[in-house]
Amino acid sequence: MKYKRILLKLSGEALMGNKQFGIDNERLAQYAVQIKEISEMGVEVAVVIGGGNIFRGIQAEEGGMDRVHGDYMGMLATVINSMALQSALEKAGVETRLQSAIKMEQICEPFIRRKAVRHLEKNRVVIFGAGTGNPYFTTDTAATLRAIEIEADVVLKGTRVDGIYTADPEKDKTATKYDTITFSEVYDKGLEVMDMTAFTLCNENKLPIIIFDMNKIGNLKKIMEGHQVGTLVEF
Predict the structure, then answer these.
(1) How many helices, marked H, and strands, marked E, lie in the chain?
(2) Per-residue pLDDT tens for 11-63?
(3) Pairing mode of beta strands 177-178, 164-165
């Protein structure tokens, strides 16, 4: 097993499946099965999920809403997604804990680092909701911050593309994929991997990132087994 403890970052948009909005239960169940598979291998799994399928703070600002207000609404959207994933995991038979950066005692625990680590050690999947609890920070940054706090071995960013390319593969058919790339090369080439604050945090804390296609069933398990999947950003 390549990694003992991971932080899996999922996008809210990915939960939509083929829908235009909201949550696709079939996609959710697929994710739950894949997470269960690696949890049963003994991998300690923490998850951060975005809220873009429900609400995005930046879009609200473009519509004239106060940015801080919009960002807090976005954080609440991530909690809705986190609850949905928790439900899907528990339905699949995986013991799960949801911790939120914003206190919501009726539905989840507050984020407490030591408690989160203890849950992971007991092989419970821990989902971190509500981002960092602060406006102006993305869920990419929340994922990186939590990964550093729990001393994860790697950040796995599950997206709809299968890695980092020389250009946008959806726009440029000649774009080629990197199997591995260094943090310095990403900076030099101006490639978009994740939010720059999150990316810099990973770099400064020597935390590798793997960008991969979460929608291809089996990819998550292959990464844990040490296979080359997606793009590894290393030092």
Answers:
(1) 8, 11
(2) 998 898 888 889 999 999 999 999 999 999 999 999 999 999 998 766 777 77
(3) antiparallel
Q: How far apart, in whole angstroms, are the C-alpha atoms of residue 110 and residue 98?
A: 8
- Yes or no: say if 153 and 6 are a contact pair by the CB < 8 Å rule: yes
* Structure-block tokens of residue 111: 């984020």
Which tens digit of pLDDT belongs to each residue from 141-155?
A: 999 999 999 999 999
The secondary structure of 140-198, three-state, reads: HHHHHHHHHHCCCCEEEEEECCCCEECCCCCCCCCCCEECEEEHHHHHHHCCCCCCHHH
Tokens, residue 120:
């992971």
The stretches of 50-106 forming alpha helices (DSSP H) are 57-62, 67-91
Nearest to 78 by CA among 13, 32, 27, 136: 13
CATH 3.90.550.10 fits 5-234, yes or no: no
Question: Domain segments of the chain: what residues?
Answer: 5-234
3-class secondary-structure state, position 8: strand
Question: b or e along 174-199 (b: 16 or more beta carbons within 10 Å of the residue's beta carbon)?
Answer: eeeebeebebeebeeeebebbbeebb
CA 222, CA 216: separation in Å to the nearest integer? 11
Does the pLDDT value for residue 179 go beyond 90? Answer: yes
Q: How far is CA 30 from CA 80, 116, 128, 205, in A?
A: 18, 24, 19, 32
* Res 100 pLDDT > 80: yes
